[in-house]
Predict the 3D structure of the following.
Amino acid sequence: MKILVVNPFGDTEFHGEENLRRIARPDTEFDVVNISDMYPLRNNQWLYFRYMCTDGTLEKVMWAEKQGYDAVFISCNLDIGLHEARQLVDIPVTATLESAALVSHMMGSTFSLVTVDDQNGKIQESMLATYGLHDHFVSQRPFNIDANDLYPDQTPTEEVIEAVVAAARACVVEDGAEVIIPGCTLAGSVLTHDVPNVEEVVGAPVLDGMVTGFKMAEMMADLKAAGVPTVSRSGWFEKPPKDDFNKLRSFMGRGI
């Protein structure tokens, strides 16, 4: 099995590849790419930035299918281009927030997000409603470190851990969360890498969206190999008309 991991911003998640290599199946190969050729920023937490990241992400997804990858995992809690990608390709495409929220529904009756800031948390909360996964959601609490500043060259890892853990504990103690989802893959990767006893520290399981999203990609690729369709084409994920798609691609000067 071969999976493409797409960081839908202009850099690559620190610890990300290392963490994924620890949990990938022995028969799974993967490559990690970003969209720095089409998007220069290291963050995408604002609505306009999120919009501008989508095009580059979809280009990577379509390229992955042509290159023979079995699945794509979009590694960002904003699930950049997830639904658009499922309309365009026939290989499975997964992302972090949707995967983590799905798994949290199996693990407990409530879950919370710890996010970089309140506006970003509101975006993710609206996504949960779109996914139909909002019923068990009880809170989002910001840890108030900008995504640009989560990188080790900007903020010491110890400060990131302290802020994320404090927000997560409040979700458990004050909001009744039974599962915590870090609302940024950069924060989740730090906890996975540097806090091996994170459940004990926080008081509830913490779902690293990178881990759940990657394992979901493996599972969906297995299902496709077993003859299960990747998505239903009868409605939401119906493919665009081929003629219009080709005309648009030609107009933009891109390959078909």
